[in-house]
User: Fold these one by one.
Assistant:
Number 1:
Amino acid sequence: MDIINFYYKRVFDDYTVLVQVNPETFAGIELIIHPDGKVEKTKMTYDEDIYEDLNVDEFKESSPLEFNLYLKM
């Protein structure tokens, strides 16, 4: 069975954070994109409150295409 991940984004003053969440296992990846183009990649394990946390932190749903382009950098 294919898993459809969820993607979120928040733009801060000098960097952008992109988040991928697997809705079944709550595993994911966080990407931090710096102004110089450097991408930090961190594997994450979330809990069932991740969606509420993202909402409180003002993350918005985003495109899997954008996430995967940065993931490949």
Number 2:
Amino acid sequence: MWDVVDLGAKQGYAIDEFRRKRETFFDAEFSITPEKCLAIDHKTEYWEDLTRSGYKPQELDLANDEAIASLPEANYYLAWHFLEHVPTKEWSNKLVKAALSKSRYGCWFRLPSFEPDEVSGEGALRAIGLRWTWSHWVGHPTHYLIEDCKNAVNEWFSEHGEKLERGVQVRVTPAGRTWNTHDEHVVFIDAPIDTTEYSPEMGKKPSRNFTPPLITEWNVVVRF
């Protein structure tokens, strides 16, 4: 059994951070060694980085049921900045449920914020003609929300809860914040698709501080 399986691993930064901060959300019952970490991605361009870190890379396109069914068991599953890359929310839900089914102790999902509210979400930006860069990318067809993820967890638990010795704990926490519109990832609503950062050539942005700060990404941690 793997200690960690990371979906959409890229260079393996999620595994790096998980190994450093696992005790923040999970019981540190055993150490996690690199050779027991599986990094899954549909691209092979990161294999050199992953191998250098001691992780096992695997090429797998998770856009089909057969690939999802082939996922191995692991103590923990990660999916950081991945669930927004799949075609639909229904497919994101499939991946969340598969990760829950294959993990022994729990899952850690990290979601870029697509939350529309005007308190800590993009709604506060859109009210003044701005948005996040990542809310209009070709590579982000699915604006997967905290509520979507929690609903998928609840649906999975309603089907599999009797198999668990303990209940399911879901913890949602901010993973990143911004305090003002000077953030490079804040651009005008009509900025071109796939804009990755603000540049002065786009024009002068409204200057606004946010109290409380806006949340740029969220942790959704599920513990068994």
